[in-house]
Amino acid sequence: MRDLANRVVQTAVLAPVVQNATVTSAAIDLEGFNSAMISVATGVEGVTLSGSVFWTFILQHSDDDSTYTVVSSSKDVTDGSIDSNGIFLTLDDNAETPQVSGIGYIGGKRYLKVVTTKNGTMSTGTPISVNCVKGNAIDAGDVTTTFV
Q1: pTM of the shown model
Q2: Residues 47/102, Cβ–Cβ less than 8 Å
Q3: Mean pLDDT over each residue of the chain, to the nearest integer
């Protein structure tokens, strides 16, 4: 069996709390790594999700951690699809939660963010967390878990 734990870095970029508004994750700095996977975990929703009440998850990237644009090319992601608005996950049915979803990032930008967008009226929220697993370290030196 090969060791994976010492070859990747896990980073919590949106703490697991009940969300009922649009929120943007902390910035993910990919310096020193050649790949990343974004993982979204949701709990039992507090409202009835539908075509008019739903969550979308948008992946953004940046060269300078200042100006972010949506990831809109399928060439920048793996193990999933992304649309021209950067949406890689939509939760619009209660049968879709709780769940864990992920998408890989292989684009050339240094920084990532995930925008968790509330659509419609939500008086009660949904537990949501976003994590990043960074891999393919350029230098296999100090690989540790970090939390924000």
Answers
A1: 0.90
A2: no
A3: 91
